[in-house]
Amino acid sequence: MSVTATQPTGSAANADHEAFLEVDDLRVHFPTDDGVVKSVDGITFSLEKGQTLGIVGESGSGKSVTSQAVLGLHRRTNAKMSGRIALDGQDLLTLPEAEMRHLRGNKMAMVFQDPLSALHPYYTVGSQLIEAYRVHHKSTAKKVAKSRAVDLLGRVGIPNPKRRVDQYPHEFSGGMRQRVMIAMALMNDPELLIADEPTTALDVTVQAQILDLMKDLQREFGSAIILITHDLGVVADIADDVLVMYAGRCVEQGTVDDLFYQPQHPYTVGLLGSMPRLDQVRQTRLDPIPGNPPSLINLPSGCKFNPRCPYTELVPDRLCFTEEPALAEAFPGHRSRCHIPPEERSVVFAEALSKRGDRADSIKGAADDRSRRTAETTRRDDADDRAVREPERGA
Amino acid sequence: MTTPTAAPEQSATADHPEILRITDLKKYFPQHKAGIIRRPDAPVKAVDGLSLMVRKGETLGLVGESGCGKSTAGRTLLKLLEPTGGTIEFQGEDVTHASGSRLRALRREMQMIFQDPYGSLNPRHTIGKIVAAPFEIQGITPPGGSRKAVQELMARVGLNPEHYNRYPHEFSGGQRQRIGVARAIALQPQVIVCDEPVSALDVSIQAQVINLLEDIQDEQQLAYVFIAHDLSVVRHISDRVAVMYLGKLMEEADRDTLYEHPLHPYTHALMSAVPVPDPRREAGRERILLQGDLPSPQNPPSGCVFRTRCPKAQQRCADEIPLVRELAPGHRVACHFPEERVVV
């Protein structure tokens, strides 16, 4: 698969090698009274062990639904699912519920966004951790499981775990609760860890701690991680590959460097352009993506992004409005769903991002020299930049 | 309106007249020990001796972790909460204990935009009624009638005026936040306290609302107190930024000074923790990790409140409360050992 192709996988690099997690043309549709909600409509990706995939998108783009489908959390009576999800060669969509239960929390685990509602308020943290372990290790004594719980709470950086293990979730702060969630997910040494907005509810200082923790744990256990987030900063920090979702589809997919320096889809360009950045002196105005995300029941025809896309005139014959672009390779290891020809794209998008000042340097640099992956980013001269921009700002 | 004649409009922020000043502001929430008999316990010191000043037409960013008292500070300076101590001066007049008609007149000048676009709009009222509420409460009939005024306001914030009779649930989060903005600017106030106005919105919608706030500010010479935990957004929108921790001011400076030459170790940690959407730059950044959690505001540490998590803490920090000192013009820091450090 293209995304993982850039990662040399050693002996297993033969052609029909299957990645640890393969998701192929996954569709999750929910029939409702108002029509079918196509939450996920044809997602394909793969993930190797020890790698982190970031899934980015706005609320309602289908990123959480995708991850819940992998874990088999959708009720099969409510959700219509098709495609293929293979974990270590085992197809999860056709697996009986009993076997699914055996995998869930064991081989694959999830860290939820809101730790307060994901933890049971009535039971101590310890008893919830012990339960998570003993469900899959029935013959293990409670004592053994508890010592494991204490051990993991210490590992995720909770001070005084021996005492904390007997406390209730409300006695923990938000960051500590999220650590408990991570400890719970790690109880059975999962090979696949799905983190659904694990740091969104947390302060930046705590977020930094949690992201560091996840990186450390990945190094230690070699797990594959799917990180769902809307924060491109978090993605830049932790992900190896990125999948950008819009209206239930993957609109762009590639390595983290390519995505940030040579984005190939107007939506990604828009996201990068609309974010204020900590490390940038302000330009006069942000450049938002106009409009709102579409309703998943009533999607626009053609490209799903066309009502918000500023580049539709670049494509002849109103193709954007009549035909949905395929997810095509823009360059090796990078795919995007856009009608604009790749050569034209890099010029137009670089121009759009050059409004962001210093980004232009790094983008043009990257376009000039695609082979350079290790070279330093062009450093800008802060003082000069500011001198140029300051007069633009009327008070 | 009672705008003093004051300085003529000039582009330089420093020449804008001061409009709001708080001095040594305190807000304590009394607590009671558990049990049948209510015995008083140590109060939660949500805001403890905060001094700030806002000028006409400028944006003061107020940042800090959750629980640092930034929202309480915003509510107290609007007199939505009664201050425990200190003074609030609006246009040179002490309004700390204003009440009744004086307070109502003050509310015309000071408004608020709330974080939660769902919770801050009455679900049973139409948009027309919500945006017209300030007129009604103040007993004002705007020229041309309130319906016309409301529709103009709706158009102003980018809503379709025809949606006058719709209810809040028919709007998306970003549109609801626009309704909140329309309501806040209805009376043409001088100061708006924005409490996390964009943190509940998607990234692409965030930028739309930020631009709207900036446009309105430019038009009406509004002052914003912009409370947020997102340091990137604050850098974009603010002229000056104040960093709070556990109810106290840690550092305050104009935006560029604060982001480029921060002096307080807490500011360093806070800024270094924000991930930058640029993988290569991100890989080269050093992260200052803070240990532990925010201490209880009911029982804050002695001396410097930040010392329990500060990488530079020494004995002196436990013994002596650091005073807020002005180390450079406009750059105020509360630290015994301030040191410049590049963290962005």
Describe the structure.
- The complex is a heterodimer of chains A (395) and B (344).
- Chain A is an alpha/beta fold and 395 residues long.
- Chain A folds into 2 domains: 18-107 and 191-204 and 217-395, P-loop containing nucleotide triphosphate hydrolases (Rossmann fold); 117-187, no CATH class.
- In chain A, 35% of the residues lie in helices and 19% in strands.
- Chain A has 16 helices and 12 strands.
- In chain A, the strands form 2 sheets. An 8-stranded mixed sheet of chain A has the order 6-7-8-3-9-10-12-11, sandwiched between helices. In chain A, strands 2-1-4-5 form a 4-stranded antiparallel sheet, with helices on one face.
- Chain A is globular, with a radius of gyration of 22 Å.
- Mean pLDDT of chain A is 82; it is low at 1-15 and 358-395.
- By secondary structure, chain B is α/β, with parallel strands linked by helices.
- Chain B has 2 domains: 16-31 and 42-238, Rossmann fold (3-Layer(aba) Sandwich); 263-344, no CATH class.
- Chain B has 11 helices and 12 strands.
- Chain B has helices spanning 70-77, 100-109, 127-138, 146-156, 173-185, 203-220, 231-237, 255-260, 265-272, 279-284, 315-319; strands at residues 18-32, 40-55, 59-63, 85-90, 93-94, 110-113, 191-195, 223-227, 240-245, 248-254, 325-328, 331-333.
- In chain B, helix 3 packs across helix 4 and helix 5 packs parallel to helix 6 (203-220).
- The termini of chain B are far apart.
Structural class by sheet pairing and helices of chain B: alpha/beta
Strand sequence of the main sheet of chain B, in spatial order? 6-7-8-3-9-10-12-11
Radius of gyration of chain A over all CA atoms, rounded: 22 Å
Main sheet makeup of chain A: 8 strands, mixed
Using only CA atoms, what is the Rg of chain B? 21 Å
Q: Helical stretch count of chain A?
A: 16
Major interchain interface with per-chain residue totals: A-B, 56 and 53 residues
Any idea of the CATH class of the largest domain in chain B? Alpha Beta
CATH architecture of the largest domain in chain B: 3-Layer(aba) Sandwich
Residues in β-strands, percent of chain B: 15-25%
- Low-pLDDT residue intervals, each spanning 5 or more residues of chain A: 1-15, 358-395
| Low-confidence sequence ranges of chain B | 1-13
